[in-house]
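Box S2. Input/output pair 1.
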Amino acid sequence: MNRFDLPDNLPVPVDDGQCAHLHVGMEFPVDVLTSLPTTNHHTVNISSYPRTVIYFYPRTGKPNQKLPDGWDAIPGARGCTPESCAFRDHYKELQELGANVYGCSTQTTEYQQEVVDRLHLPFDLLSDAELKLMNHLKLPYFTLAELDNVPLIKRLTIIVKDNKIEHVFYPIFPSDKHAAEVLNWLKQNPIE
């Protein structure tokens, strides 16, 4: 099995309430977001499109790199690469619906750059390695001793419009179908 395939027996994440405070209409910390390093080394600009889609994911692995022990047993952990590929594949459609896309994890920009290059992602990945956005928004996370207990953001997506949270997807499963879920939501909620 390669990183693009998801095992059939992955545990399904449940809504544990850790995103309940991220409500519609809540002011989004644009100043914190724009301070995050990006893989193209430009400042994040959420005013270039009417909406901004930010999908948060725990971490991506590299080819031929062993998954952390127990990774598949953590609900929602597996599937970061397939999720990014799905956003890549739907990117043009998302833009046509007025949405720009960013991926965000706590991995470093240097690590993320390899992913952008290897997967040919047409959008930036944001590095929250300093945990600024995670802490400001109180995003849910988990840690693994094998990964030096670095906080890994649980999979969620926030749609921002007019600097406010317009929608939150949490939990997300399966990850490879999530970009289509976001696309459908955008179609059902056209920009007025």
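Box S3. Input/output pair 2.
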Amino acid sequence: MKFRQFALPALLLGIGCFIYFKPAPAGWQSKFVQQNKEGHIRYIPDAQGNTIPDFSRVGYYFGDRPLPEVAVVKTIAPTGTDNDQELIQSAIDEVSKRTPDKNGFRGALLLKKGRYTIPDRIHITAGGVVLRGEEGTVLVAASKKQVSLIDIYGEGQIAEIPGTRVKITDEYIPTGATSFNVSNARGFKPGDAVILFRPGTQQWITDIKMDQIESRGGTRQWQPKEYDLRYERTVVAVQGNRVTLDNPVVMPMETKYGGGELYKYTFDGRIRQVGVEDLTCESTFDSDTAENHAWDAVAFDKAEHGWVKGVTARYFGYSCVNLKRHARNITVTESHCFEHKSIITGSRRYSFNNSGQLNLFMDCHATDGRHDYVTGAITCGPNVFVNCTAKRTHADIGPHHRWASGTLYDNIVTDGDINIQDRGNWGSGHGWAGVTQVVWNCTVKKAAVQNPWASGKNYCIGLQGEKVTGRLKGRPDAEWEGQNQPGLEPSSLYFAQRKARNAGTIKTR
């Protein structure tokens, strides 16, 4: 869609919405997102139609279901020896062989209170299994290797269904959109699992200047094929050649940068509905800078619609929870990461790390970390961190490197920094850390939030803390609004968007 064709209708419609939409009369509201007393949300587009996207459909079953209470089918108690690992693993394997019930659950394994010594790791590779502790249940990771204490993973990979790929025909799909036109939609129907594909191109890399990173030893300029983005979505409606998806576009898709495509996929072997609950996990260590010990308390990969609730991790080198590339729709809540043990440098102390899609971290707390709430390279959103704290931080919160897209940092309180910036030649060429990164009502020591040279915006709304330049001078400012101005309404964007799903949302387009 060309700019002229879109701008005037959007402007007139925006004026019309302003006339009939009366915001709730409390505090102050953003010029980008407004909510009235009934809970309706109005998103105000820029000249190209881009809006802050809806982040509400993340986590376990998109937030449509509460975390389940799965019945206990087996209970064990600690032996006080290294046999605890074998005992737990045998019990997990036994539960994993049970026939799933009508809701897909095989049952919960309850670990009675006490200390369980795990010389290596335990793993869950079947869906519908819940590992649960009680007050006083402690898993002691005694490994001398950098393992994940509780390792949850499936098999296989995303596989495109042949003959289903179609081109997106719109010239420009703005951030926040959930529908668009394709060349032929006859092969799609509601419920189809699809990949929204956005190719990396040389022109795009040139325009965001990621082929011009100041070189130092080991610096790699960005390469197009390394930045193909694949967003997992579900079709909710098809009308003619127009397809509507369940979750929004989280960065503009433009013909000049290769446009986009849509295709159906399968992921045979990915497991679902695995939960970890009410456990304290501790790693043994030789010193405060020890490296030869357990790295993650809990890790997920090739899994979906799972959860971590009430897990406390102490003395690990990397994380309490590490969601890897193919972990999606995972909810991590009421969990804590304390007192890391490692040297303080790169690739360590990422307290709650997310490289997957559609994941939710809520009500979590961290101390002594580096990147406490963080996303990795080419992390595809939406993803959400909400109502989380960090103390005694050694680095920053935010997208870490190489273009994460679509993350909400909502009511994060830290004595350190939140940064969304061009990281330049840090690492092997981190470059632009992310786009459509929304910092909402957060409290920080200081923050650098910038816009990339092309392909979207970042937002910093209602920040309490100091605004700083960031690592590199001359980068464009993000959309800053209401710095050090209390009373932002809604106080939480994520929870307002959740409420609006029930109340109905008013859009300007």
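Caption for Box S3: The longest helix spans residues 3-20. The radius of gyration is 23 Å.
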